[in-house]
Amino acid sequence: MNSNWLSRYFQFSELKTTFGREMLAGLTTFISMGYILFVNPSVLGASGMDKGAVFTATALSSALGCLIMGIVAKYPIAIAPGLGVNAFFAFSVVIGMKVPWQTALAGVFIAAVIFFIITVFKIRELIINAIPQSMKLAMAAGIGLFIAFIGLNEGGLIVANKDTLVSFAMLTKGTTWLTIFGLIVTVILMCRKIPGSIFIGMALTSIVGMISGLIPLPSQIISAAPSLAPTFGVAITHIGAINTVQLAVVVLTFLLVTFFDTAGTLIGLAEQAGFIKDNKMPRVGQALLADSSSMLVGSVLGTSPTSAYIESSTGIAVGGRSGFTAVVTGILFLFGLLFSPLLAVVTSQVTAPALIIVGVLMASALKKIEWDKFEIAVPAFLTVLGMPLTYSISDGIALGFIAYPITMIASGRAKEIHPIVYGLFFVFIIFFAVLFG
């Protein structure tokens, strides 16, 4: 591909960037978010899904999303299966609700189809504006606490206790100390603002685990990509299993979580890169199309919903301004398919620190909630606290959306409630009635 053609297509001159800078930005972004190749199979594997197939589905759906984002939307923003929504899939839906992973994957597919349709018909903006900002922030923060809790448990730091429900673990296991090592190293790297801190932290933790004998050595480093056969097309063949109100709410939750996660991330990254003009994001339709397309394809391949990644900010920080940054990241995800044997050394103790750190980053949304207004604080608090305490993202969201109309009406602010929010109020009332009735 001619470099001059690339320069013209991606507008290097207009954006005051260069081929070399875009290459570096794409590499930096990939290093920062490459951990998802190993964390996603670990999280979804807990639901019974084949880790090898999920690994391949993760790489392919990420590559597709990045390439569409880069070539069509021309933004330096990468896409991959989102942390948080994958935890909802595995721990809330499959493990918590006892829903087979095949049915849960069908739910992702239906949510992806709806997602794609409302993107094409430009309905997403209407829905985004209908949901109160405080509830969007509470959802993000609550998911952060939820996945951090999962990380603490998976890493062996927090355990069940019949007297106190949960407690700090006895530090007698080497694997628990491995989690502590990984967490400390990653925190230090993050504090030093080292690009790819989470990825580097996972690599160092795996190395220490292998040296200490806590993690077995891999039989090889490079191999052909694992087969997609265990998960490919399963979502489509199990659509008929989505036949209860409970599962309909699961689909709605997949839709809502991915919806707001992507919207917030896209706007934040576009602001960082200086793309926002007159309070509008140019080519936002193409950017949303990239996200919805990869989610749709990813569900067919066999992975949880994809979303724009905040780690794209690392590539933007080193100068990435064009879609070529995302293209480079997408190509690197394809190269990542060759390293599936490393899945064996990326144990739950290795991924736990990553979950905890991402939880910290997501919890930063708490600072923007209007805690001084009680009618807003109550539903936000119930949403945030409800997710880790009920071990369910959907239950936390339901508590918040049931409380919100009540507190707003009680405070004389009923006119501020959008009809869509009233609709969600009744949906979640029915959800609880069916789930616990």
Tell me what the structure shows.
This is Guanine permease. InterPro entries: Azg-like, Azg-like_bact_archaea, NCS2. It is found in: Cell membrane. This protein is mainly α. It has one domain. Helices cover 66% and strands 3% of the residues. It is built from 19 helices and four strands. A two-stranded antiparallel ribbon has the order 1-4. Strands 2-3 form a two-stranded antiparallel ribbon. Strand 2 and strand 3 (165-168) form a beta hairpin. Helix 8 (133-154) packs antiparallel against helix 18 (393-410), helix 9 crosses helix 16 and helix 17 packs antiparallel against helix 18 (393-410). The chain is globular. The N and C termini lie far apart (62 Å). The relative contact order is 0.21.
User: Which sequence of strands runs across the widest sheet?
Assistant: 1-4
- Main β-sheet, in a few words? 2 strands, antiparallel
| Low-confidence regions | none
Relative strand content: under 5%
**Helical run tally:** 19
Tell me the total number of β-strands: 4
Q: Mean pLDDT, as a whole number?
A: 89
Rg, Cα atoms, Å: 21 Å
The share of residues in helices is: 55-70%
Distance between the termini: 62 Å
Structural class: mainly alpha
How many separate domains make up the residues?
1
Shape: globular
**What's the helix-strand series?**
HHHHEHHHHEEHHHHHEHHHHHH
Question: What order do the helices and strands come in, and which of them pair?
Answer:
Blueprint: H1 3-9, H2 19-33, H3 36-45, H4 51-73, E1 79-81, H5 85-96, H6 101-120, H7 124-130, H8 133-154, E2 158-161, E3 165-168, H9 174-191, H10 197-212, H11 234-237, H12 245-273, H13 284-301, E4 306-308, H14 312-317, H15 323-336, H16 348-363, H17 374-390, H18 393-410, H19 419-436
Antiparallel strand pairs: 1-4, 2-3
Membrane topology: Multi-pass membrane protein
InterPro entries: Azg-like, Azg-like_bact_archaea, NCS2
Pfam families: Xan_ur_permease (PF00860)
